[in-house]
Write a structure and sequence with these properties.
By secondary structure, the chain is of the alpha/beta class. The chain folds into 2 domains: 18-46 and 77-305, 3-Layer(aba) Sandwich (Rossmann fold), CATH 3.40.50.300; 315-485, Rossmann fold, CATH 3.40.50.300. It is built from 16 helices and 19 strands. A hairpin with a 7-residue loop joins β2 (27-28) and β3 (36-37). α2 packs across α13 (377-388), α4 (125-135) packs parallel to α5 (152-163) and α5 (152-163) crosses α6. The longest helix is centred in the middle third of the chain and has 14 residues, at 180-193. Bound molecules: adenosine-5'-diphosphate (ADP) and magnesium ion (MG). Magnesium ion (MG) is lined by residues 152-153, 250. Residues 152-153, 250 line the site of magnesium ion. It is found in: Cytoplasm; Nucleus. Keywords: ATP-binding, Cytoplasm, Helicase, Hydrolase, Nucleotide-binding, Nucleus, RNA-binding.
């Protein structure tokens, strides 16, 4: 599923959300180091009616740029993906090159050293094909799509460094990214990779960086956000767009989801020479991204790497019937109490519900981490990191960020609130994302769904039908039965 439809689903879910009235005088130990205010444990739960189509002070909305930055911050290595790379060549008769080693690329020794210094031993799946294409002479345009963490940014960083002529003291490569933070992240990769290639210099065209009008940059590579890059090309004339020979557009899906960025990108693009090499990268590829890509990248080679399918095959699925909201908490405690579980993730509809639940679980003596939308991306990354390191055993979260977490190590997923769509029907994709795994690990997992109304029972049936998998009822007060089922 695309990140966009994911975001919509999340927005909508939270339109009729439960919220908890917080007593801000009480403080609960912060879960990412500092102390911050959390809810009163015995807070009143009130049903709050939402206006204005979904975005509320409680609702966690997913911002694609933030999500992307989060992935970057928590990523330690390449994502596993064993799918075949699909390649569509502009000229199908020309030979298709792919490389298994960085040596085969005949890089400058300074760059090869930089690559190895980053701990890269061999090209990633997508790099095997993308690198020879980007380095080929004469230059070829490329559109590449693969999920976050597959090595796209590292690939074009290497291509840019390899492309420029360090003897020429003007900007030759231009790269745009959707946000300030993402531009900085890309810049760091280029800087790291170029450690042993000091003749090549990098400039950041981001807000806050100012120079006198008319001063030409000497840096061969410029990375920035569309607005500032456009200003530097037109208004301030720091860059001569006619001298750009490689143009890179990263995170195209996030770019066009950001107000104004699509048009600014076009305006930059229009000033570039016709024979400038155009490269575009995206994690997802729905129609809108395609339309954009086709306009920006003429006669492209196209590379696609599909995300590995998640499956429910290795998951045992259960549901617990609870009379009302409060019983769900008791069921959860029973459940957790009788299991020897490595780690658990608990999903709630709203950040207030998540905060309330986290506070209550903490009160019960559990080590709980809370992840929700009001945290900065950096704070969220820190929480995820702590959870991954096993510093907390339970993670309570709304839908926000849940995809950034490698659930392979999580043996229990609890849907404290079931995932529903705009019409209150089961949101099957979200369900799969929460509990599904890529299946190759063979590690068993358990999913427990809290059912608190006829409507939510109905949702369980919809999910069963959709995936053609039985979801079994359990009685969390029956310890013996529980032990049998979870063994
Ligand atoms: N060939 C490689 N070998 C090992 N690690 C790599 C390789 N290429 C990239 N990485 C690492 O994998 C992670 C994801 O790479 P990145 O280029 O940011 O992917 P993407 O742009 O597709 O999200 C980063 O931590 C990066 O340092
Ligand atoms: Mg990237």
């Amino acid at each position: 599923m695309s990140q966009n439809s994911w975001a919509q689903a999340v927005d909508v879910q939270e339109t009729t959300a439960l919220s908890v009235q917080l007593d801000s005088s009480k403080k609960v130990q912060g879960l990412y180091g500092g102390r911050y205010t959390r809810g009163d444990v015995n807070a009143n739960i009130v049903l709050e009616k939402k206006e204005n189509g979904g975005r509320t002070k409680d609702g966690d909305s997913v911002d694609p740029a933030e999500q992307s930055l989060l992935y970057k911050l928590i990523r330690r290595s390449l994502v596993r993906n064993r799918n075949q790379v699909e390649v569509l060549q502009r000229d199908p008769t020309s030979p298709l090159y792919s490389v298994k080693t960085f040596e085969e690329l005949r890089l400058k020794p300074e760059l090869l050293k930089g690559v190895y210094n980053m701990g890269f031993n061999r090209p990633s799946r997508i790099q095997e094909n993308a690198l020879p294409m980007m380095l080929a002479q004469p230059p070829q345009n490329l559109i590449a799509q693969a999920q976050s963490g597959t090595g796209k940014t590292a690939a074009f960083s290497l291509a840019m460094l390899s492309h420029v002529d360090p003897a020429n003291k003007w900007t030759q490569c231009l790269c745009i990214a959707p946000t300030y933070e993402l531009a900085l992240q890309i810049g760091h990769v280029i800087e790291q990779m170029g450690t042993f290639y000091p003749d090549v210099q990098l400039a950041y065209a981001i807000r806050g960086n100012r120079m006198e009008r008319g001063i030409k940059l000497q840096q061969q590579i410029v990375i920035g956000t569309p607005g500032t890059v456009l200003d530097w090309c037109t208004k301030f004339k720091h860059i001569d767009p006619k001298k750009i020979t490689m143009f890179v557009l990263d995170e195209a899906d996030v770019m066009i989801a950001t107000q104004g960025h699509r048009d600014q990108s076009f305006r930059i693009h229009r000033q570039l020479p016709k024979d400038c090499q155009m490269l575009l990268f995206s994690a997802t590829f729905e129609d809108s991204v395609w339309k954009f890509a086709e306009k920006v990248v003429p006669d492209p080679n196209i590379i696609k790497l599909n995300r590995e399918e998640e499956t429910l095959d290795t998951i045992k699925q259960f549901y617990v019937v609870c009379k009302q909201e409060e019983d769900k908490f008791i069921a959860l405690c029973n459940l957790y109490g009788c299991l020897t579980i490595a780690q658990a993730m608990i999903f709630c509809h709203t950040r207030r519900m998540a905060a309330w639940l986290a506070a209550n679980l903490t009160q019960e003596g559990h080590q709980v981490a809370l992840l929700s939308g009001e945290m900065t991306v950096e704070q969220r990354a820190a929480v995820i990191e702590r959870f991954r390191d096993g510093k907390e055993k339970v993670l309570v979260t709304t839908n926000v960020c849940s995809r950034g977490i490698d659930v392979e190590q999580v043996s229990l997923v609890v849907n404290f609130d079931l995932p529903v769509d705009i019409n209150g029907n089961a949101h099957n994709e979200t369900y799969l994302h929460r509990i599904g795994r890529t299946g190759r690990f063979g590690r068993k997992g358990f999913a427990v769904n809290m059912v608190d109304s006829e409507h939510s029972m109905d949702i369980i049936h919809q999910i069963e039908m959709h995936f053609n998998r039985k979801i079994i009822e359990i009685d969390t007060s029956n310890l013996e039965e529980m032990e049998k089922l979870f063994s």
